[in-house]
TrEMBL record:
Lineage: Bacteria, Bacillati, Actinomycetota, Actinomycetes, Streptosporangiales
Domain of life: Bacteria
Compositionally biased tracts (Basic and acidic residues): 188-200
Molecular-function GO term, any one: 3'-tRNA processing endoribonuclease activity
Residue ranges of every copy of the Metallo-beta-lactamase domain listed in the record: 18-215
Pfam family, one: Lactamase_B_2
Region named Disordered: 181-203
Protein name: Ribonuclease BN (tRNA processing enzyme)
Length: 249
């Protein structure tokens, strides 16, 4: 199984780095995790939309899902028509959110592009030989983390989340934990993200074998985020550099 970083910027795309988006390949399968702005262009360096086994969206903030809109145009009106609608797994309300943006005078044919399937806590799906299990996490809105395994290897992805027991369970003994590290906790105490220290602690509590931090906010240098995460976690720590390909083993 391989993780390809399409983008990791937060909360907006930067020169050379789109927002959150990842391609996971394993066995005969390919899954697009999160579809932040700019990630569709990078996805096409590796595969075409119709060749995906599915798309999985952690939550409906624009920096994680906005490229679904342009993917719709590619699939329905351009040169990437799918043989069948692509399974799209997202939080409740995903179809309505897309329809609200895409509709103009009439209804958009969303079902020609996507087979929308709503996530719930404990949701399971099998895509191209990979098993995906989603858990509801704490982000101040419906949001999910996911564990992907191919029978031998496992990848855990936090989405956007404050530290919580559900994410610990997703990451338990994972070969690779891809965890956001947005910045410092807010002064009002309303936790909806991981700090770099939180990412390290989550990886340590879960016994994850390797940590890759992502979604590092604009007020924190990558090197500082890595240093702070590594202070709380004894295993290997890396950053989700755009274009990076990580073997999950």
């Amino acid at each position: 199984m391989e993780l390809t970083v399409l983008g990791s910027a937060a909360p907006y795309a930067r020169p050379g780095n789109p927002c959150s988006g990842y391609l996971v390949t394993g066995g005969s399968g390919a899954v697009w995790l999160d579809a932040g702005p700019g990630t569709l262009a990078q996805l096409q360096r590796h595969t075409r939309l119709p060749e995906l086994d599915g798309i999985w969206i952690s939550h409906l903030h624009a920096d994680h899902c906005a490229d679904l809109l342009t993917a719709f145009y590619a699939l329905v009106y351009a040169d990437q028509p799918p043989q069948a609608p692509i399974p799209l797994y997202g939080p409740p309300g995903t179809a309505d959110r897309l329809e609200g943006f895409l509709s103009n005078a009439g209804r958009s044919p969303l079902e020609r592009a996507f087979d929308v399937r709503e996530l719930h806590d404990g949701h399971r799906a099998r895509l191209g030989g990979m098993q995906l299990e989603s858990r509801s996490v704490e982000h101040g809105m419906p949001g999910y983390a996911v564990r992907i395994h191919d029978g031998a290897r496992s990848l855990a992805y936090s989405g956007d989340s404050a530290p919580c027991a559900a994410l610990d369970a997703v990451a338990r003994d994972a070969d690779l934990l891809l965890c956001e590290a947005d910045g410092d906790p807010p002064e009002d105490g309303q936790r909806v993200h991981h700090s770099p220290e939180d990412a390290g602690r989550t990886a340590a509590r879960a016994g994850a074998h390797r940590l890759v931090v992502t979604h590092v906010g604009p007020f924190l240098r990558t090197e500082e985020a890595l240093r702070r995460a590594a202070a709380e976690y004894p295993g290997p720590v890396g950053h989700a550099d755009p274009g990076k390909v990580v073997s999950v083993d």
